[in-house]
Amino acid sequence: MAQATASRRQKRISLLRVLGPGHVWALGVGIVLVGEYMGWNFAVGKGGAIAALIACWFAGLLYTCVAIIDSEVTSTVAAAGGQYAQAKHIIGPLMAFNVGLFLVFAYTMLEAANAITLGHLVQTVGIMAGFENSSDKPFVVLTIMTLAWLNYRGVYTTLTFSLVITAIAFIAICVLFFAVQPWSDAYVHHDQLLTELPYGWLGVLAALHFGMWFYLGIEGTTQAAEEVRSPARALPLGTMTGIITLLIAATMTWYVCSGLMPWEYLGQSVTPLFDAARLTNSTVLMVLLFIGTIFSALASANCCINDASRAWFSMGRDHYLPQVFGAVHPKYRTPYRSIVFLVPVALVFAYFAPLDQVITFSILSGLLDYTFMAINVIMFRKKWPLGSIKRGYVYPFHPLPAIVLLILCAATYFAVFLGYGTQLIAMMVFYIVASLWFALHRYKFVRRGEQFTMPWPKPVGY
Amino acid sequence: MNTFELLEYAAWGLSAFLGLWMLIDMLRTDRSYEEDLLTSSKEGEIEQSPVSDPAPERDR
To answer: Which of A122, A123, A320, A382 places its Cα 20 to 30 Å from the Cα of A389?
Structure first.
């Protein structure tokens, strides 16, 4: 009997636990840092440079709440799938199914957006070199295929690659910040360039939508829960250092760009940090920031593939989706079928959908996920109060951060509605239809007893 | 054909190669191992030793 049990245990394959806090940092910051290189500056276009700074701080507060809340729950629910696994244990199957979809779409759409951006950058280089008919499509496809292949071959190499290129992209921002000598007025001229709020406080509210780009995706660190050597230590450490890095990078980015460019130009720029480097007339800085732009987009797409495939894999493993997606490669120890399945999905969006639509779908899915997180942590503390289960990290001032997060999410929904109301409604309809499919058809395949894997006592009140 | 067009063809070729590599490896893996083994991962497992590279079905 004991031999039979041992034999069964030997025939089991799981994801490989090889990652450390540095990889978790790379996973969180790697997804997001591209937002500093491009995208955040549309907040300037919505309400001016001051409005973008206010949006940066408000979004920073929103994501600080996200990071500390996530750190507590994930240090307890250490499972691939991140917030999906949290929802499954704390709220219920329908919420978990929706959260799983939010994650997969948020990351796959962001991956597609990054591939489009990289293709566009290569095409721009081609046009600047005199090749007028150059196309971006081959490089869009190459980006997705190469990074999917890297992810397929193993998580350690994938995230070490992300760690290196993310660190270079972050250092490039630091170098630019010190190169413009912020202690003097040699380059930056805030006294001349900063204006009043051109569209008043409504402009500040509208800027919130794009202020999210400074930090969107930091919550993806939780997807590494089954692949880190010490989840209770590495996940909170990697996530917290990640959000601190992003707060520093966001502030430096805003300071440099708003001191070098008038808000009317900055609000339209495609690559604001690269444009800031061009304004210094330094070839070294231009090359460094161009490399930083390419690396940040590559790191983001790479980490997005990692996170989306883990969420899809977890849902397959629990039979929320067909079980075939719950397979692990016996040699590379990655969710290989999920990685391969999501490749054509990303390709279709990258090839055919407009960039702003793809990004908006990603932001809205992320926003739904943050709203869930605030509700989730309140229920978590109520059902399993402090002391009832072991926590790797306890976030402070509960429930204040959760309430602040809910208020900021509501304000951001309104901001998104101002610019993309139709997309917001279309996306809500999509998730309602998907929920109906799950409740009426798919839920009967879910093994209800087996999906609760945490060794917790019964929740209070049950 | 200019240099950039050559780069474009190289990008298409490399993309096709990587895509085919993943597909072939996936099919080979699926045929070499039992489905129960490939989908045997359990959420929340922490132990390392029982999961180190199992031999393909045909080698056992």
So the answer is: A320
Residue A200 to chain B, least CA–CA distance (Å): 47
Measured distance CA(B28)–CA(B33) in Å, rounded = 9
Is residue A373 within 8 Å of A107, Cβ to Cβ? no
Neighbours of B56 (CB within 10 A): 16
**Position A458 in a domain:** no
What is the residue range of A48's domain? 22-92+155-302+358-445
Residues forming beta bridges with residue A19, ordered by sequence position? A228
CB < 8 Å from B in window 147-206 of A: 148-149, 152
Question: How many domains would you assign to chain A?
Answer: 1
Count Cβ neighbours within 10 Å for each residue of A112-131 and write b for 16 or more, e otherwise.
bbbbbbbbbbbbeebeeeeb
- Which residue did the predictor score with more confidence, A79 or A93? A93
Residue B39's closest chain A neighbor by CA?
A327
Residue A34 and residue A117 in contact, taking contact as beta carbons nearer than 8 Å: yes
Chain B nearest-CA distance from A106, in A, is 23
Query: What would the pLDDT profile of B1-55 be if each residue is shown by its tens digit?
Result: 788 999 999 999 999 999 999 999 999 999 999 999 999 998 865 544 334 445 5
Residues in chain A, total: 462
The answer to whether residue A409 sits within a structural domain is yes
Eight-state DSSP code of residue A458: P
- Rounded to 10 degrees, the C-alpha dihedral A210/A212/A215/A220 comes to -120
**Rg over CA atoms, chain A:** 22
- The answer to the question of residue A293 being in a domain is yes
Taking a C-beta distance cutoff of 8 angstroms, is the pair A399, A375 a contact?
A: no
Q: Do A340 and B22 touch (CB under 8 A)?
A: yes
3 state DSSP class of A389: strand
Tokens representing A89 are 């244990």
Q: What is the ipTM of this complex?
A: 0.86
Q: What residues of chain B lie within 8 A of the CB of A152, using their CB?
A: 22, 25
Q: Which among A67, A111, A48 is positioned nearest to A312, based on CA atoms?
A: A111
The answer to whether position A135 is within a domain reads: no
The answer, for B37 touching chain A at a CB cutoff of 8 Å, is yes
Residue A389 main-chain phi, psi, to 5 deg: -135, 160
Cα separation of B60 and B53, whole Å?
13
Residue A377 belongs to domain with CATH number: 1.20.1740.10
Residue A329: list chain B partners with CB under 8 A: 29, 38
**CA distance, residue B31 to nearest chain A CA (Å):** 12
